[in-house]
Amino acid sequence: MGKVLALVLILSALAAGGAMYYLQIYGFYDNVELQPGRDVMLMPLDGGEPQPVAYSDFEAIDAGSSPIRYRACFTTRVSPDELAQIFTLTDKLEPRNAPGWFECFDAAAIGARLADGSAKSFLSVKNISFGVDRVVAVTDDGRGYVWHELNKCGQKAYDGTVVGEECPPRPATGE
User: Fold this and answer.
1) Res. 174: pLDDT tops 60
2) CA pair distance 148, 69, nearest whole angstrom
3) For residue 146, which of 123, 170, 112 has the smallest C-alpha distance?
4) What does the mean pLDDT of the chain come to?
5) Does the structure show a pLDDT above 90 at 25?
6) What is the number of alpha carbons within 13 Å of residue 156 lying toward its C-beta?
7) Using alpha carbons only, what angle is made at residue 71 by residues 16 and 27, rounded to the nearest 5 degrees?
8) Are the C-beta atoms of 40 and 75 separated by less than 8 Å?
9) Is 135 exposed, middle or buried (0-12, 13-18, 19+ CB in 10 A)?
10) Fewest Cβ atoms nearer than 10 Å: which of 10, 59, 73, 121?
11) For position 156, what pLDDT does the model report?
12) Quick one: pLDDT at residue 175?
């Protein structure tokens, strides 16, 4: 009887572990539908509304389970130096990892390109979700990458620090 119980426990643990792995790596992600003219936008230097940038070969994934799971890849003919003359640069140089099956987004390689100066990162949309900014990086060879990053208000909100008056009001939840 003890061997059967141990076998049931081991099989249950394996099934639960496999389910958690699948849900974290594959289960919650969905492909993002193309929204021409709205998929890749950058914040102008004057702080106005984000403006679209010419792009092609766009592919993106997102998950409703977290506002920072968005990742996208695209190509553009506009150089990072041309973009930097018009749009706001950001100091976000460490993109978040993407699932291994989303092959176009290699966070380590993108981070290395940002660190060595062969790519630049730009602010795309501020507070796309409460406390979360969209960041776009463009390389010298015309590859572009998009991810979401916690801003100062988001970092405070999620670590329990008092948010303060400089942050926008937190949206009401359906709870």
Assistant:
1) no
2) 7
3) 123
4) 87
5) no
6) 15
7) 20
8) no
9) buried
10) 10
11) 72
12) 46
Provide DSSP, the chain. Answer: -HHHHHHHHHHHHHHHHHHHHHIIIIITEEEPPP-TTTSSEE-BTT--S-EE---EEEEEEEETT-TT--EEEEE-SS-HHHHHTTB-B-----PPP--TT-TT--HHHHHHHHHHTSEEEEEEEEEEETTEEEEEEEETTSEEEEEEEE-HHHHHHHHT----TTSPPPPPP--
With cut-offs at 50, 70 and 90, classify the pLDDT of residue 164: low
d(CA 116, CA 30) in angstroms, rounded, equals 32
**According to the model, what pLDDT value does residue 83 have?**
96
Q: Which residues contact 121 (CB under 8 A, 6 or more apart)?
A: 89, 90, 91, 92, 93, 114, 135, 136, 137
Total residues belonging to the chain: 175
